[in-house]
């Protein structure tokens, strides 16, 4: 063994979330056929892929809506099973779905505490909820809402997205998954939401951003995980790739990757992947189980 092999152990903290070889079938449909995902604290990890690639299924498995049929999930380095949304919430996983699940007839404070209201005896503790909601919005530098007692019905699309994201971080969350947060927004509101996404990561959260929009991805993501036909085609550092390469990965599952990388062999009939070969925990480029520094 070389001296380098005896070098000091890697002191980097484990990723907040690591999925290794995740599989999910819906009857005869193999929605996930061996997916890997690494999401680190302080980073935005984009999850991209064509329609039907498996992005929604992946995030629903992480959120405990469907359990993975096979594969490993590690949370902060510990093996875990997420078999219900309550399990995911207990770990600190929050998901903001596209529909946002806001109640138009309630104000921002009540929406942020929806289903998890603070109580004083039998009554709602309005003042504690208002204080905490204001603190969270201030900590995220949200200045786009006029009053936290405003009804959500009167908010713009970007403001609604902001409220849904702020609600997700209210609960000491460690991993926030955002499903297409800018899909319905105009240019200025998209920019505000992307800045908020970046601030979440800068505040130390692990953020997974599901997106079809390469501008968004290249603007905020530190790494990009590409799904292709239910498999991980690559997880790459954003600085080490290009839009052309990511689009190639999305559309064909392979691309002219970094020198030394082995092109993935993904096809609709591909056999199960050798998950032992995956190396997504490193910062190296990982292409369907093959790694290049
Ligand atoms: N509940 C379900 N029952 C049966 N098949 C499903 C179910 N959910 C997803 N699928 C199938 O699993 C595959 C992956 O779908 P999924 O929705 O995860 O893809 P996606 O990447 O999120 O696509 P999109 O970008 O269009 O939302 C598709 O073939 C889809 O038809």
TrEMBL record:
GO MF terms, alphabetically ordered: ATP binding
InterPro entries xref list: AAA+_ATPase, ABC_carbohydrate_import_ATPase, ABC_transporter-like_ATP-bd, P-loop_NTPase
Residue span, ABC transporter domain: 17-254
Gene3D superfamilies given in the database record: P-loop containing nucleotide triphosphate hydrolases
Keywords: ATP-binding, Nucleotide-binding
Region (Disordered): 257-293
Biased composition (Low complexity): 274-293
Keyword Nucleotide-binding assigned: yes
Protein name (record): D-xylose transport system ATP-binding protein
Organism: Cellulomonas humilata
